[in-house]
Write a structure and sequence with these properties.
The structure holds two protein chains of two kinds. Chain A is an alpha/beta fold. Chain A is 41% helix and 32% strand. A five-stranded mixed β-sheet of chain A has the order 1-2-3-4-5, with helices on both faces. In chain A, helix 1 packs parallel to helix 2. The N and C termini of chain A lie far apart (32 Å). The relative contact order of chain A is 0.18. By secondary structure, chain B is an alpha+beta fold. In chain B, strands 1-2-3-5-4 form a five-stranded antiparallel β-sheet, covered by helices on one side. In chain B, a hairpin with a 2-residue loop joins strand 2 and strand 3. In chain B, helix 1 runs antiparallel to helix 2 and helix 2 packs antiparallel against helix 4. The longest helix of chain B has 22 residues. The chains are: A alpha/beta, B alpha+beta. Chains A and B meet through helix 2 and helix 3 of A and helix 2 and helix 4 of B.
């Protein structure tokens, strides 16, 4: 299964609920397109909910980094919510936990913007 | 350990087209073989992850999706676990040229993390140049030593 992304607006924050696998091909390009579209529409506060994401490969990690960069370059921020243990491990191994702001609680994440 | 288990046994030896479908199929087979070999759920995930990353490197960066180039995929049962060999027909790969993906100045690069993840998830990793100039990745995963 590839990734399914659904966006919802909570105040001025766009929450992206992701379900499935973010891997090279359809999964990573779907994420890229949605972030690009949101940035083009002027959304600057994004919260990516990864609670239902079972797997991210190195291409998917690359897309997270790329999304972070493009939102930051537009003057906004992309933060991560509810990482599974495996995705936490991936961010530790790749040292990206030093880059992303990560939250376990959605209310706290929303309040941080 | 039986005499049969003490000898390496080739479980799978295939030449595959350079496509993402091949990557998906081989990852699935590697996961099945790891389960059959008795690896835990977490170690099976780690082996599957390392295999997928190595296959993506072979298909995308090695063979560049060429219809004229194949990926060689071999899984061997070893006395200690499993050995997976993934070989492409590309023009070679140098870790030195890639740069350290974990260095501060490279953290925001979009790509280049695959080998670091393979290294983290495999118990042993060898990267070699094949006689024809491609890349051969050999990764090994070991079962935990039995207590006593």
């Amino acid at each position: 299964m590839s990734v399914k992304l659904v966006t919802r607006q909570v105040g001025d924050v766009t929450v992206i609920d992701a379900v499935g696998r973010i891997t090279l091909g359809e999964g990573s390009s779907t994420f890229r397109e949605i972030v690009k579209d949101l940035v083009n529409k002027g959304n600057k506060k994004m919260l990516l909910n990864l609670a239902e994401v079972s797997y991210i490969d190195s291409s998917g990690i690359g897309e997270l980094v790329s999304g972070f960069t493009s939102v930051s370059n537009a003057g906004g921020s992309l933060k991560l919510l509810k990482l599974t243990k495996r995705i936490q491990d991936l961010l530790q191994i790749t040292k990206l936990y030093t880059v992303f702001e990560v939250f376990d609680d959605e209310a706290k994440a929303l309040a941080s913007f | 350990m039986s005499a049969q288990e003490s000898r390496p046994l080739i479980l799978l030896d295939q030449r595959l087209e350079s496509s993402l479908e091949s990557v998906d199929r081989c990852e699935e087979r590697a996961v099945e073989l790891a389960q059959e070999r008795g690896f835990s759920e977490e170690e099976t995930y780690r082996l599957g992850y390392a295999v997928r990353e190595a296959l993506v490197n072979a298909v995308v960066h090695g063979n560049r999706y060429s219809a004229n180039k194949a990926v060689h995929f071999k899984v061997t049962r070893t006395p200690r676990g499993l050995e997976v060999v993934i070989e492409d027909q590309g023009s070679g790969f140098s870790e030195a040229m890639q740069g350290d993906p974990l260095a501060r100045e490279n953290l925001m690069n979009q790509s280049g993390r695959g080998l670091a993840l393979i290294r983290a998830f495999a118990d042993e990793l060898q990267v070699e140049r094949t006689p024809l100039g491609g890349t051969r990745v050999i990764l090994r995963k070991f079962l935990p030593l039995e207590a006593g």
